[in-house]
Amino acid sequence: MQKCVYFFAKDEADGSSKMRNLLGGKGADLAEMANLGIRVPPGFTISTEVCTYYNEKGEYPAGLDGQIKENLKKLETATGKKFGDADNPLLVSVRSGARVSMPGMMDTVLNLGLTDKSVEGIVRRVTNPRFAFDSYRRLLQMFGNVVLKIPGEKFEETIDRKKEEKDVKDDIELTIDDLKQLIEEFKRIVKEETGDDFPQDAVKQLAMAIEAVFNSWNNKRAIEYRRIHNIPNHWGTAVNVQVMVFGNMGSDSGTGVGFTRDPATGEKKMYGEYLLNAQGEDVVAGIRTPRPISRLKDEMPEVYEELEGITQRLEKHYRDIQDFEFTIEKGTLYILQTRSGKRTAQAAVKVAHDMVKEGLISKKKAILRIDAAQIEKLLHPRIDPDARVEVLAKGLPASPGAAAGIVVFDADSAVRFVNKGEKVILVRRETSPEDIHGMAVAQGILTSRGGMTSHAAVVARGMGKPCIAGCEAIKVDEAKAMFTVNGVVFKEGDYITIDGSLGQVIKGQVSTIEPKLGEEFKELLGWADEVRVMGVRANADTPDDARIAREMGAEGIGLCRTEHMFFGEERLPYVQRMILSESDDKRRKALEKLEPIQKEDFKGILKEMQGLPVIIRLLDPPLHEFLPNHDELLVEITKLKVQNGDEKEIEKKEKLLRRIEDLRETNPMLGHRGCRLGITFPEIYHMQVRAIFEAAAELTREGVNVLPEVMIPLVMEDKEFSLLKEDVVGIAKEVMEKEGVDFKYKVGTMIELPRAALCADKIAKVADFFSFGTNDLTQTTFGFSRDDAEGKFLHVYLEKKILRDDPFQVLDQEGVGQLVAMGTERGKKANPNLEVGICGEHGGEPSSVKFCYYNGLDYVSCSPYRVPIARIAAAQAKLEQE
Question: Most buried residue, 247, 280, 720, 788, by CB count within 10 Å?
Answer without folding.
Answer: 247
